[in-house]
TrEMBL record:
Name this protein carries in UniProt: LacI family transcriptional regulator
Keyword Transcription regulation: yes
Keywords: DNA-binding, Transcription, Transcription regulation
Domain of life: Bacteria
Residue ranges of every copy of the Transcriptional regulator LacI/GalR-like sensor domain listed in the record: 45-104
Gene Ontology MF annotations: DNA-binding transcription factor activity; transcription cis-regulatory region binding
Length: 110
């Protein structure tokens, strides 16, 4: 057995699944069809809090809310400024929040 395989041999399955975007929540159906559990088992979380997908799927999805409306407004503001000849550079940080739903179990108490 290779050193890499020995290093991960104790892993019996995923500890969590991350959807690149909330739109790929169809993963919950595929996992369920294969007998894998999410809440209470391996949790699934998404990234963008697109409500139509995150809140309304079979297992409501825990997700990171990026405040897409504010993100779009900020992007448009900076785009129009550049088009008007203004120089823009740097990193713009925008706060986000975790929206906990049924696809993740609560953390165990210590």
């Amino acid at each position: 057995m290779s050193l890499r395989r020995k290093h991960i041999a104790h892993i019996t399955g995923p500890e969590s699944y991350r959807a690149a975007r909330d739109r790929v929540t169809g993963l919950t159906d595929v996992l369920t069809e294969h007998g894998l559990t999410l809440a209470g088992g391996a949790p699934l979380y998404g990234y963008d809090n697109w409500e139509i997908f995150a809140a309304d799927c079979r297992l409501p999805l825990t997700t990171v809310d990026l405040d897409l409306e504010q993100l779009a407004t900020t992007a448009a503001t900076h785009l129009f400024a550049v088009l008007d000849g203004q120089t823009r550079s740097g990193v713009i940080r925008q706060p986000c929040r975790l929206v906990v739903r049924e696809s993740t179990a609560p953390l165990p108490s210590r």
